[in-house]
Amino acid sequence: MGRKLIGIVDPYSSGSLLAGDLKKRGCPCIMVQSTPAIPELFRRSCHPEDFCEIVQHRGSVEDTAAQLSARGVSAVIAGCDLGVELADHLSESLGLPSNGTALSAERRNKFLMAQRVAAHGLRVPDQFCSRHLKELMDWTRQLNSWPVIVKPVGSCASDSVCRCASEAEVETAYRTIMTRRNILGKNNSDVLVQEYLIGTEYVVDTVSCAGRHRAAGYWRYGKPADASFVCYDSMELLSYHGALQTRLFSFACAVLDALGVQYGPAHCELMCHDNTITFIEMATRLTAGNNATLSRACGATCQLDLTIDAYLHPVAFLDSMNKPQKLERWAANFFLMPRRKGRILAVPRMPEVQNLRSFYKGSVGATMGEPAPRVAGLVTLIHPDRKVIAEDILAIRNMEDAGLYEIDESPSLQEQR
After folding, report:
1. Domain count, the chain
2. Disulfide-capable partner of 234 in 24, 222, 314, 371 (CB 3.0 to 4.6 Å)?
């Protein structure tokens, strides 16, 4: 069999990892750019040097598909949320492995997504969607349960997701969403209000091939106890095995089937409370950040590896569906999140973080001298003993409360984040 040529639509964020690993396997890639300009969020993660060619999509699926067909592309993969719908259209048009376009909208629009999942008998949050503030307010009053979650229907990366504890906060969130473009560079058309879910949030990362689904990783998300906005401060990689994992995977598979996912990676967010699982949302692309490869560093197969296997070697992928996976080490990502407002001047105790027993790697992304961002950096922890990681996470939290960041809180320098 000759070497395959893969088209990757918007290979940004974790999708930027695909071309590099495919090149290592002797498989060249074409970058398909869905927008005239790459959104600012993704510019740093775009690596055009990894591609043999760049095809600019100019609005016509037929024209772009013809260009890919002429080059002999054998698969089209979405690199990030921005490219999901175009990847569906191109793969379907070319007669390649595809999730099809019939449910493309449900795989991107968070309101339609939950409606579809609910129609298949799965629990979802109470929700309402509208572009009109009065309708949203009327529904929220009728729900009469605070707080609520307010978010755009088609963005990603927690963009403009707000936890609102009053009608005034709902109105503020609404106006923020409707008067700006989202981080994908698109206008927000509607606002979604959902009930606030209580419990522990889990993620099931999967890879599908010919409608069969394989678990690529399980995660438990931690949240700051004093968070006034929707965020995570840690993501802990869990074992592939256990009664909880079995239930989470079964639920995730039902979601994948409901949304028509046949091929490729997916990232399914679920809430568990009192032994009940509730759907939050799903994305049909690689899990973000280094989560797509972290289990590889822990001695197992990662979502990136499985995604490439599913497209390059589908028969072998399907034959290995029941192959047991086992982590040799445990891992977690911890987000550095300053709790105080002001200008961040330094992170003086970062060497102490680097000396923790489970420290694997870390970076500070905040610009010194600028207002402290919600997320100032990321620390990845890996260790054979799970207790060591838990202790190190606690140690970082304690440092955050006691001098991890040097912040100038002078009143004249205070800025809203």
Report:
1. 4
2. 222
pTM of the model: 0.93
Q: What is the mean pLDDT of the chain?
A: 93
Residue 109 lies in a domain: no
Sequence-distant (≥ 6) Cβ neighbours of residue 74 within 8 angstroms:
4, 5, 6, 96
369 inside domain: yes
101 located within any domain: no
pLDDT band, very low/low/confident/very high, at 412 (cuts 50, 70, 90): low
Q: Do 354 and 311 lie in a common domain?
A: no
Q: Are 7 and 75 in contact (CB under 8 A)?
A: yes
Same domain, 249 and 270: yes
Is residue 323 located within the same domain as residue 386? no
pLDDT computed for residue 181 by the predictor? 82
pLDDT tens digit sequence for 25-65: 999 999 999 999 998 889 999 999 999 999 999 999 999 99
Domain contains 347: yes
